[in-house]
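Narrative summary of target 7.
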Amino acid sequence: MTQTTLRDDELLDLVQRQTLRYFWDFAHPVSGLARERSDVTPGCGPDVVTTGGTGFGIMAIIAGVERGWLDRAAASNRLLEMARFLGHAERHHGIFAHWLDGRTGRTVAFSELDDGADLVETSFLLMGLLTARQYFGGNGAAERELRERVDALWNEAEFDWHTKGDEDMLYWHWSERHGWAMNHPIRGWNECLVTYVLAASSRRHAVRPEAYHRGWAGGSRFANGRTYHGIRLPLGPDHGGPLFFAHYSFMGLDPRGLEDRYADYLEQNVAHTLINHRHCVANPNGHAGYGEACWGLTASDDPWGYEAHAPDRDRGVITPTAAIASMPYTPALSLAALRHFMDYDDGRLWTDMGFVDAFCPAEAWRAGSHLAIDQGPIVVMIENHRSGLLWRLFMSCPEIRDGLRRLGFTSPHLGATSA
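Modeled conformation, tokenized:
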């Protein structure tokens, strides 16, 4: 029996379990954190670990435990080692950098000015850590200490510092050397919704709801309402942007029934995904290989470097995580794409750590890399499609429920008291 003749559930088991190896077998040997990428590039060697990708990996490990592929005690011990390392790693007002040295915990500069706090990457990490806190609720010493250490990291994260002096806006970066020089306000619509939810949920360093409404929702590229390929898009840039907008925050935030004054977030993510799919089927640029089962534009490596691929930045590069991690939104289309990727190029996209990062049919190119931020959503969003596990756990956090209420959200997870 070949892989593509497996039943749907068997195939999803295979893809999740093998992709999980990136975070379990390939984790950094000292810290246990997720390496940024599986290959070595200038400025990013084997000791560079990724803050946000580690958060995604934590959620993937939880899925592996729940599926019986990882031993619970081994997983809780691994996560405890990671939490201990993070507790001693360099932070900037409680916020981690985008990259760390997996041996020492020191900040590794992501760019010349980006050598300090990265609020968005830290949000993805905290989303994973809070999910782990909710899952590992046992009375054993390891699980108790894990919860305590997660709470410490969460409580010490100074979201309010990132208002740059009490503005009604969060800013992405801050550095001891360069201060606010990057001057990057976090405005929607993009992948950063969970950053504002966490900032509103913090027990010690919360921001005012006005930051969400005036900062996040106040940008010129937030509301949309236009139609693309016959589909109305509530929020975001024209044609939706790269598909990771529909993935990263929603690895923990359950979009089903999640609404506020601006959007129904399941409607938003389904529309975004369908527009991406229909763009690839229409293929206005005539790229080789595109079709009903070969679709998905998002950020990834490509033959010329790295790009946040999207319908308006379409280089002819398909990124497997784009379609596969959209499975909660377009299950039939995503499963068809997954099967196509398995067969493509005589199976050469499939490796011992899951699918390669991307491929470009016109250039006869396929990546020699895997990236944590692309592998993690494959495992997590397939699991959310199958069981809703990570959604249920993250949305069970009392702080998150309170934060969502403060921002004016409604959700089935908030119960009758939502407002």
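The first strand starts at residue 48 and ends at 50.
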